[in-house]
Amino acid sequence: MNTQKRLPWPWQVLTGRPRGLGLQRSTQWPWHALTGLILVTLAASLWYSTSLISYEWRWNRVPQYFVYQAEEAQRAVDYGRVEAISEQGEGSRVTLLSAAGAQQVVEVAKGSLQVAQGDEVAEGDVIGVTRHWAAGPLLWGLWATLWISVASGVIGLLIGLFMGLCRLSRNPTLRDLSTVYVELVRGTPLLVQIFIFYFFIGTVLNLSREFAGVAALALFTGAYVAEIVRAGVQSIAKGQGEAARSLGLTAPQSMRHVILPQAFKRVLPPLAGQFISLVKDTSLVSVIAITELTKSGREAITTSFSTFEIWFCVAALYLLINLPLSQIANRLERRLAQSD
């Protein structure tokens, strides 16, 4: 006999828990509609707030900070004159004849021509420009954020795995040193660590700002990964290790082949959260003049005066990195759960 008490119907609706055989999918649309209404209300509130401060949106200024047409001046290499000019599709082909009789052929973009046929030119005179698409500061900042995140994440994972195992070691020295490292790093702000690493250690060892930034982020991430690894290993029943040892595996082999694979399944969510936080923490390396995404956004604001637009784009780029990372972690977690 089923003695489980059913929740009252209003509470079932509010909590989304089933009544009887469960809520049908068709009865869930009001909740999705409510979600959409809340999001629309928040967007309208944001628009209304900006209208109160008489802010003028200038989204047309934003695309140039992603990609733009760069111009490169084409110059005469010697004294001479313009012998011929011919049209070549979207450009112009200029033939220069130097005083020594040598020819120089210059191709420039149409509409940028600065000389006419028969003109005298001197060395260094601008004939015209060529145009090509180039990445803007926000894309370069996104690239810097990506490689800094990947480099510091990989190094931090290795440091964290080693230090986490040291925290579980029977060797008092390894255990004490790893504990000091974890508590020291977790007990001080990341910004202070970046300053110390760059201005003190970096100056003594003559390190570049990129190396100092990656090292500081890696050491910071490694401390948290170490605690995640330690907790994951300790969550595995001791009988697993004992069973592995009884089969003839050594302690390192049992840790590698039995304990760590099981622990990895349990620590995957906190590890994913830590690496997502790492991507956002890369914004702090801008204090040592590394032009990552946040610093690129600040520089774009000083020239465009489009404060809200640029910051919204910067936030969207961080989401562009973190949302796929979160989805990959969730899918990997479900796949590992099915393999149990």
From TrEMBL:
Q: Which InterPro entries match?
A: AA_ABC_transptr_permease_3TM, ArtM/GltK/GlnP/TcyL/YhdX-like, MetI-like, MetI-like_sf
Q: Name one GO cellular component term.
A: ATP-binding cassette (ABC) transporter complex
Q: Does the keyword Transcription regulation apply?
A: no
Membrane-spanning residues: 29-48, 140-163, 184-205, 211-229, 300-321
GO BP terms in the entry? amino acid transport
User: Domain of life, per the record?
Assistant: Bacteria
Give the family, as the similarity comment puts it: Belongs to the binding-protein-dependent transport system permease family. HisMQ subfamily.
Name assigned to this protein: Putative glutamine transport system permease protein GlnP
Gene source species: Pseudomonas cavernicola
